[in-house]
Design brief:
The complex is a heterodimer of chains A (114) and B (114). With 114 residues, chain A is mostly beta strands. In chain A, 0% of the residues lie in helices and 59% in strands. Chain A is built from no helices and eleven strands. In chain B, the strands form two sheets. In chain B, strands 2, 4, 5, 6, 9, 10 and 11 form a seven-stranded mixed beta sheet that branches. In chain B, strands 1-3-8-7 form a four-stranded antiparallel beta sheet, with no helix packed on it. Chain B is globular, with a radius of gyration of 13 Å. The chains are: A mainly beta (114), B mainly beta (114). Chains A and B meet through strand 4, strand 5, strand 9 and strand 10 of A and strand 5, strand 9 and strand 10 of B.
């Protein structure tokens, strides 16, 4: 049972345009959501997060939107740059006995074309 | 601040052999995680430690996988005996104790089982 889904395995965007990466989840108990970025041969690095009590969080070129009723979140990158080419993972936080546990989506490979 | 260290970076073994991975988390991080990332999928949690105690090992195949975190710092993950389907990247992550801090990942160990 895939609790966090990223339905687009890949996305190609022209440099300077907006990149929109999507993520859907099924568990309404998730209380926190994160986006991670991964380059080849490196571990995932934290990008941006949002609490379930908010619907938007912005950090520079990156904005995450949360629609709780639809159980959907999205990451917007504006403007897209070549260095943004990477695999992006959506993750949702669950709490087991008070400890944070992350459930990851399958990832979306973003390619920014010059 | 030094990041999460993992070794080795790459390992190739024959099926039925045993293998061990090592992780040194960020200094002061009480929580340590081991993830398995199979090609084309997101990281999947294997085991979570809080200091040197196990918080969640519900997805650890205990017939062949074991992990320990002595003295609440370094951790080792062992597979014995390895199967072909264990081929994956094994990621270690650590986190401070605060409620919504992100997890910091190491570069991972790529395991190939032949």
């Amino acid at each position: 049972d895939q609790q966090v889904k990223q339905n687009s395995p890949s996305l190609s965007v022209q440099e300077g345009r907006i990149s929109i990466l999507n993520c859907d989840y099924t568990n309404s108990m998730f209380d926190y959501f994160l986006w991670y970025k991964k380059y080849p041969a490196e571990g995932p690095t934290f990008l941006i997060s949002i609490s379930s009590i908010k619907d938007k969080n912005e950090d520079g070129r990156f904005t995450v939107f949360l629609n709780k009723s639809a159980k959907h979140l999205s990451l917007h990158i504006v403007p897209s740059q070549p260095g943004d080419s990477a695999v992006y993972f959506c993750a949702a936080s669950d709490r087991i006995q008070g400890a944070q546990k992350l459930v990851f989506g399958q990832g979306t490979r973003l390619t920014i074309n010059p | 601040e030094a990041g999460v260290a993992q070794s080795p970076r790459y390992k190739i073994i024959e099926k039925r052999q045993s293998v061990a991975f090592w992780c040194n988390p960020i200094s002061g991080h009480a929580t340590l995680y081991w993830y398995q990332q199979i090609l084309g999928q997101g990281p999947k949690l294997l085991i979570q430690f809080q200091n040197n105690g196990v918080v969640d090992d519900s997805q650890l195949p205990k017939d062949r996988f074991s992990a320990e975190r002595l003295k609440g710092v370094d951790s080792t993950l062992k597979i014995q005996p390895a199967k072909l389907e264990d081929s994956a990247v094994y990621l270690c992550a650590s986190r401070e104790g605060s409620a919504y801090n992100e997890q910091f990942f190491g570069p991972g160990t790529r395991l190939t089982v032949l």
